[in-house]
Design goal:
Low-confidence stretches: none
Number of strands: 25
Strand content: 15-25%
Largest sheet: 12 strands, mixed
Structural class: alpha/beta
Shape: globular
Mean pLDDT: 94
Helix content: 25-40%
Distance between the termini: 19 Å
Number of helices: 18
Radius of gyration: 23 Å
Length: about 550
């Protein structure tokens, strides 16, 4: 029997009216702004006086592999599972970027029978949030270049411009460009470049802002360039924050949709976790905590990136306190970390599984010992998993005092997530000693060292001469008290994507430091991380199509 694709399953679903979904959460009609029958934005001003009552559950994962882990699928299925056992639960996720949708990863709305819908809309432009973010980003870029063209009263050094343009597409051709060519009236010629929209500081600002007032204040603080004498130039200096906020006035409102089982879902914001902070918006999370008893959210990629930034950036800034963590793993991915080629992952291999398990166990140790949070390992089930393999995972986790729950949500939806849901509810009732990886008053280099040693288990950190100079400049400018946002490969604990499992005896090299004063953190770039990805040899876009009736195919 042929398996149905994710999009076929989604298109066969009978969706509830979004107004019925809103009513199920007790949301008043005047707070719901409909985008058709199945999508809505919520007016956070109408809900601002509601108290927060929910318990926050973070879903993270082991280091990703080509075998896949299923973090979003697990998040959706867990929330459906919580509803199945009688709990008032919602899921709060990020919006997908068009870059991965048309590139390698494909859609990001869950999978199988654990999806958020309408999945085509969610994956393809949704309610226009990313377009608004890109427009605000590029307005700031245009105002900056116009200021220079019109006489440069601020004394901006064209060679010290840090602000780039943005487009929500994987397009390596735009990484490094020269613009302003064609004569005096066409602008000032200079080197420039593009970032993908999800790497723009505007995305981070939108996701960390608590309301419009906070949004405008953060936009005003964005640093776009430096003057000839080394002083920062901000969006406020260019008088741009008001117009940018006007473009973002609707984008800041959380989006409400549903799962295949009619569970309410907030999908809002989408910064990447390897080059940004990887969490959905503060407004969506806080709104969900006001309306439900259990809120399931996820952070991008593995716990060394997504969970660390969720804790040290989002929770710290927003005053959030998680109650429990779910760490998603698959037997197949763990065998890959143990050295098995992708083509051979369907075969039982206990030796390779044993070699790969330290990756999972190191993430478990970080969550429990660094963040002080209780956790459960969710093994995303595959038909090829054997009893012996599953027993080995359970045995190694139990040695650390952590339970394992088999997650069958891809095939069974919420019914397949009930066991995981029961364990999550149990963990939420336990006391925890939640804490951060580092204190904010540490010097920049010490924060970097602490992250690399405590989270990545590296021997330490090495800053290039350029990064050392930048750390000193940022300290002199008064930015040393900000948290760190590590830009690092998602494929390894280290900054070398080829080092699988739980590598030892390595040093992380930081080559560049950049302050995001509006977002409120310092980005540390390591390895060959770039803020504009490229398309693969065979882009997913080649398989996407739409018929004469508007029915989309090829999204997976």
């Amino acid at each position: 029997m042929a398996f149905k694709t994710d999009i076929e399953i989604a298109q066969e679903a009978q969706l509830l009216s979004i107004n019925d979904i809103a009513k199920s959460l007790g949301i008043p009609d005047d707070a719901v702004e409909n985008y058709g029958r199945y999508k809505a934005k919520l007016d956070i001003q109408s809900l601002k006086d509601l108290p927060e009552k929910g318990k926050l559950i973070l879903v993270t994962a082991i280091t990703p592999t080509p075998a896949g882990e299923g973090k979003t699928t697990t998040s959706v299925g867990l929330t459906d599972g919580l509803r199945k056992i009688g709990k008032n639960a919602v899921v709060a996720l990020r919006e997908p970027s068009l870059g991965p949708v048309f590139g390698v990863k494909g859609g990001a709305a869950g999978g199988g029978y654990a999806q958020v819908v309408p999945m085509e809309d969610i994956n393809l432009q949704f309610t226009g949030d990313f377009h608004a973010i890109g427009a605000a980003n590029n307005l700031l870029a245009a105002m900056l270049d116009n200021h220079i063209q019109q006489g440069n009263a601020l004394g901006i050094d064209p060679k010290a411009i840090t602000w780039k343009r943005a487009v929500d597409m994987n397009d390596r051709q735009l990484r490094h460009i020269v613009d302003g060519l064609g004569g005096k009236v066409q602008g000032v010629p200079r080197e420039d470049g593009f970032e993908i929209t999800v790497a723009s500081e505007i995305m981070a600002v939108l996701c960390l802002a608590s309301d419009i007032t906070d949004l405008k204040a953060r936009l005003a603080r964005i640093i776009v360039a430096y003057t000839y004498d080394g002083q920062p130039v901000t969006a406020a200096d260019l008088k741009t924050q008001g117009a940018m906020a006007a473009l973002l006035k609707d984008a800041i409102k959380p989006n409400l949709v549903q799962t295949l089982e009619g569970t309410p879902a907030f999908i809002h914001g989408g910064p990447f976790a390897n080059i940004a902070h990887g969490c959905n918006s503060v407004t969506a999370t806080r709104t969900a905590l006001k309306l439900a008893d259990y809120v399931v959210t996820e952070a991008g990629f593995a716990a060394d990136l997504g969970a660390e930034k969720f804790v040290d950036i989002k929770c710290r800034m927003a005053g959030l306190r998680p109650s429990a963590v779910v760490i998603v793993a698959t037997v197949r991915a763990l065998k890959y970390h143990g050295g098995v080629p992708k083509a051979e992952l369907n075969e039982e291999n206990l030796e390779a599984l044993e070699k790969g398990l330290p990756n999972l166990l190191q993430h478990v140790g970080n969550v429990r010992n660094v963040f002080g949070l209780p956790c459960v390992v969710a093994v995303n089930a595959f038909p090829t998993d054997t009893e012996a393999e599953l027993r080995l995972v359970e045995k190694r986790c139990s040695e650390l005092g952590v339970n394992v729950a088999l997650s069958e949500v891809w095939a069974k939806g919420g019914e397949g997530g009930k066991a995981l849901a029961e364990e999550v509810v149990r963990l939420c009732e336990q006391p925890n000693e939640f804490g951060f990886t580092y204190p904010l008053d540490m010097p920049i280099e010490e924060k970097l060292e602490t992250i690399c040693k405590r989270i990545y288990h590296a021997d330490g950190v090495a800053l290039t001469a350029n990064a050392k100079k930048q750390a000193q400049q940022l300290t002199e400018l008064g930015f040393a008290g900000m948290p760190i946002c590590m830009a690092k490969t998602q494929y390894s604990f280290s900054d070398d994507a080829s080092l699988l499992g739980a590598p030892k005896d390595f040093t992380v090299t930081v080559r560049n430091l950049k302050v995001c004063a509006g977002a409120g953190f310092i980005v540390a770039l390591t390895g060959d991380i770039m803020t504009m990805p490229g398309l693969p040899k065979v882009p997913a876009a080649e398989k996407i199509d739409v018929d004469e009736n508007g029915r989309i195919t090829g999204l997976f």
